[in-house]
Amino acid sequence: MAIAYKKSLGQNFLRDHLFLERIISSSEIQNLNNVIEIGSGDGALTEYILEQTQNLTAYEIDNDLFKILLKKFKMHDVNFINEDFLKINLSEIKKNHLIIMGNLPYNVSSQIILKILEADIEYEHCIFLIQKELAQRFNYGNKSCKISLIAELFCDFEILFDIPPKAFFPVPKVTSSLIKITKHNRYDKKKMKYKAFKQILSMCFVNPRKKILNPLKNIFKVMPNFDFDINCRPEELEIDDYFEILRKYEEQS
């Protein structure tokens, strides 16, 4: 059956079997694992997942592809769901030994990842294929940003390897990266104040290249003393610095 690719859904399907095998190897799926695949597409990765486990729930928003998947995998007991993953209630997911994975559409990759992180559900790890530029933003390095700090609050974020455009069809204009997300419990107490923490980050990163002093003036009625240099840029501060801003903001309220 011919597939009509929909640019509006960010559809770029991985065709290179060498990279598909590397993704499966990196996922570390065992027979006992429950797997959620986001965006099954034409089922290329789905086939490899089913070689490792039959405990698969797969989301596909495209109704035409959903019908193709049902036909292609009719001999397998896969729970295909024709819904937008961004609209499902993650609190209803109660699966043991869960791995979440998928070749995520470029246009909603960050939204999907943030939805999973913010839901704080239990999983062993996530394996996602996303745009390399976005992977570098999530992966805290020399410069912080709002999403890298949110990711650091919830998980360890690792870039495993890159995949060139020619491995996909239609061929995208950008390089992709395979990432691994593993939950940690380092900041469990801070997660309880996530809404306020996220609000602080939003205010501080309005102009990330300007001094942190500027947004701090809007946050505090009277400027407190900080352990960091208030003449630094927001992107130069680390997560503990933003915890300090949050703590002193709460003390002021």
Instruction: State the CATH superfamily name of the largest domain.
Output: Vaccinia Virus protein VP39
* CATH architectural category of the largest domain: 3-Layer(aba) Sandwich
Main sheet overview: 7 strands, mixed
What is the number of domains? Answer: 2
- The SS-based structural class is alpha/beta
Question: Could you give a quick summary of the protein structure above?
Answer:
The chain is of the alpha/beta class. It is built from ten helices and nine strands. α3 (63-72) links the parallel β3 and β4 (79-81).
Q: Topology, please?
A:
Elements lengths: L12 E2 L2 H11 L6 E5 L5 H7 L5 E4 L3 H10 L6 E3 L16 E6 L5 H11 L5 E7 H7 L7 H9 E9 L4 E2 L6 E8 L4 H4 L2 H11 L8 H7 L19 H14 L1
Parallel strand pairs: 2-3, 2-5, 3-4, 5-6
Antiparallel strand pairs: 1-8, 6-9, 7-9
